[in-house]
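Example 323, ligand iron/sulfur cluster.
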Amino acid sequence: MNFANLRDRAFANESLSRSECCAVLECPMERFEELSMHVYTVRQRYHGQKVSVQILTNAKSGNCDQNCAYCAQSAVSSAKIDRYSLAPFEVLANNAATAAGKGVNRHCVGLSGMRFGDDQIEAFCGHIRRLKMGTPICCSIGFVTKFQAIRLRESGITRINHNLNTGRNFYPKICTTHTYDERLANIAMLQSIGFEICCGGIVGMGESNDDVIDMLLEVRRIRPECVPINFLIPIQGTPLAAANLQKLTPEYCLRVLMLARLLNPRADVRCAAGRELYLKGHHALMFRAVNSIFAAGYLTASGEGIEDAIGMIRECGFEYASE
Ligand code: SF4
């Protein structure tokens, strides 16, 4: 495989064939440095040395009626997590103040659940309207009606996270309470009313390389502004608590991130959950592909603090995007 050609295709913003995607995911160790340097030139052209940092607030936790196998908040999870309907405004305000104080680039607010009443959306929008901290807010949310989406947009949210999670063929193995096509339709509706989209998935749930490629090619077709790649953090009490994680070597995780970059050269490619678990000690290599990370934990799992994350970015020779 000519990896320089894949770099040039990324510069031309062209997609890759399945066999080219496969060559990236199966890149032998002796060619790893060569591939990662080509990916790095793509990352640098569109994002320089900058790394943006996001924080997450779980504004509604647990009690979901869906059965996503990886999720601690699902109907089939017995994980010991906090369960609450809409969090008080002060919780969001405190996190927004932290985000503003540290120059965090985005404040992502997640809500458990797949469907919401108009009254729930209105209450949430009320919180968002009261937050005037300056940090852009994005919202991780399930399926919303067009009316609800417009209300979210009017409240000041400009970007919505809605992941595909995995490839179409593997999707029924991780969730049977909604379909892949429902996710695609929701994303298309959100794009039609002007939302930026954050869309990626989770790797390490037992899927094949073909499933990862399916997912990444579908994400590429959507052309999201941000592509978050999560590596499974198995949570006790979920169906994937005992998932086989042997595949998630640092090298494999890095190859997935490099493929995500080649397919989405201009997007923010974010290494999300699992970064601290699978890529500790490999962050400098990770940043050759990735220009965005989370700090201060994930929805139901802990993570590296904001100051530590900023320090780590600098130690790797990259720049915190707020500087
Ligand atoms: S991922 Fe979202 S929809 Fe799926 S179980 Fe968790 S909270 Fe519910």
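Summary: Residues 3-320 form a domain with the TIM Barrel fold (CATH 3.20.20.70).
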